[in-house]
Amino acid sequence: MLLNLVIANLKIIFRDRVSLFWALAFPVMFMGVFALFNLDRPPQVDLAVVEEAPGPLGQTLRQALDRMELFETKDESSETAALRKLRNGDYDVVLVLGSDGGTARAYYNLANVQLNEMALSALERFFDEFNLQAAGVQPTVRLEQQAVSGRDIGYMDFLVPGILGMGLMQYAIIGMATVLVGYRAKRILRRIQTTPLPVSRFVLAQVTAFLVLSLLQTAVILGVGRLVGADLPGTFYWAFPLALLGNFVFLNMGIVVASFTSTEPAAAGMGNAIGLPLMFLSGVFFPTDQLPPFLAKVVSYLPLAPLLEALRAVLLHGEPVLEAWRDILLVGAWAVASLALAVRAFRLE
């Protein structure tokens, strides 16, 4: 009986084109949009170089600047023209080499705060090293650099597990909430109560159908992630049980949302009110360590953040799943708590 109900619910889900869009196409579109931007490319500073009195020293400085990957250097003959282009946003920094050969002036746009810090710091180091070399001074302490091979994680590698968690959460909360509210509005749940079929079994079949769909979501999102360039060398198969665990939490949250709303638009609105803050704060798009420390600590105890940590541990770093036991335990605790809350909050009318 339960299997037949699950199959029936799956058929209903797959016939609903809008639901399938939100479950599968929407997360894939997110990945596609981010894949269009080369977010792994290191930043470059457009640097204009003006020599007030061209000579051998200026030429040497110019050649040394050309070897720095940070700067995209161009020559300008006029300081006035270069500053006008700086104000218009054509350049990030204008470097004027003084006619006396002993001064250099750097002009920068106040609007580019982060880029300015990086560019000015690099120029200061450049001139310090250039002056030492020009004076023939040998450094007292020489830094020896030794590279250690490690996992080079690009932005798409980081993003795909985040999109997976986001897709699971959004569709589970909103999908389950709107389905149950729709059933309640049509008095389907009340009618089932008059049949030999327990309402609990009917809801369990609905939950199971969503869990099955989450496996398809996981396969599609990870598969498309590989196609758009994500390198996921880890234990691929562990993503599926982790997705089931996380999805179970979010389905319970959907049941709770359905219990506090009376219409499908209201259920979708409340689901978004829960899901959107989690999506933007839990590390879907950017690491949570960029948040204020207190907020990052709070977010780490919410259900999406530990799920993403566990997914990235197995997918990006290839760690055994038990290495992420703290995150899994936290998601498991959310599963138990959300189930208890869903059972208590569930209502037929």
Summarize the model shown.
With 349 residues, the chain is α/β, with parallel strands linked by helices.
Which helices and strands occur, and which strands form pairs?
Layout: H1 2-15, H2 17-36, E1 45-51, H3 56-66, E2 71-76, H4 79-87, E3 93-97, E4 104-108, H5 113-135, H6 155-185, H7 188-192, H8 199-227, H9 239-259, H10 264-281, H11 293-299, H12 304-315, H13 325-345
Parallel strand pairs: 1-2, 1-3
Antiparallel strand pairs: 3-4
Properties at a glance:
elongated; 349 residues; abc type-2 transporter like fold; alpha/beta; 13 helices
The main sheet comes to: 4 strands, mixed
- Total separate domains: 2
Spatial separation of the terminal alpha carbons: 25 Å
Strand order of the biggest β-sheet: 2-1-3-4
What's the number of helices?
A: 13
What gross morphology would you assign? Answer: elongated
Order of helices and strands: HHEHEHEEHHHHHHHHH
Radius of gyration: 28 Å
Helix content: 55-70%
Structural category is alpha/beta
Mean pLDDT: 81
Our estimate of the beta-strand percent is: 5-15%
Uncertain segments are: none
The total beta strand count reads: 4
Could you characterize what this model shows?
The structure is a single chain. 63% of the residues lie in helices and 7% in strands. With 349 residues, the chain is an alpha/beta fold. The chain has two domains: 2-38 and 154-345, no CATH class; 45-135, abc type-2 transporter like domain (abc type-2 transporter like fold). Helix 2 (17-36) runs antiparallel to helix 6 (155-185), helix 6 (155-185) packs antiparallel against helix 8 and helix 8 (199-227) crosses helix 9 (239-259).
